[in-house]
Amino acid sequence: MILVLIPARGGSKGIPKKNIKLMNGKPLINYTIEAARKCFSDDDICVSTDSDEIIDIVENTGLKVPFKRPDVLASDSATSESIIHHAIEFYQAKGVFVNHVMLLQPTSPLRNEHHIKAALDQYLNCDKAVEMLVSVKITDANPYYFLAEEDDAGYLVKSKISNATRRQDVPTVYEYNGAIYIYNVAALKNKSIKDFTKVVKFEMDATSSVDIDTPLDWKWAEYLLRTTKNE
Description:
two-stranded antiparallel sheet; 6 helices; globular; alpha/beta; 10 strands
C-alpha cells in the first residue's frame, strides 16, 4: 500500500492558520487534496492534523480525516518523521500495512497531479535501491560559486572549495523544494531519515516549486496561481 500523507498542523507563526487560509478563494490545503485525489482513492489519503477546524474544512471536501493527531505531535517541534510513524502505526493497528509513504505538504499549491504521478512512477521504477525520493529544484545560490562563510579570522571564504571563475564550471546543486517526499517504510523502520543514503531526486521547475513560508511567498503563489496554468 502507498499511503498519501498530508500533514497539516493548526498553528503557524509566520502566517496564522496558514493551511486553511484562503488562497484565491480556496483553503490552501485544498490544492493539495485536489491534486492527490486525481492520483489516489480517498482510502489512500490521510490528512494528519491536530486541529478541529482543519478537520471540518477537509471533510467539507468529502474526504474523511481518519484521526486527530495527539497533542504530543501538535507542537511546532514535532517532526515530519514522528508524524509519519504515527500514521503508519495507526493503519497497522487496523490491519493495513503500508509499504511506502508519499508526503505532500499543503504549502506547495503549485505542485499538481502530473508531478505526483511522475514522481511516483520514477520511484516505483527506479533501477536501484531507494530509501527516499525527494522533489528538488536547481538552486540559484551555488556553494561552489556564490555562497560564502566566515573563517576563524572573520574573513569570507567560499562554502565549497573551487577555482572556477564561471558558474557553468561548477557542479549543479539542488535544493529540496518541500513538494513531494516518498519514503520506503522498510527503510524508515530501520533508521532515521537523516541517516538515509539511498536518496534520489525528482526535479521540478522553479514555478511549481514555490513553497509558502512567509507572507511574501503567499503573495507570489497567489499571483502564480492566477496567471499560470497549473499543468
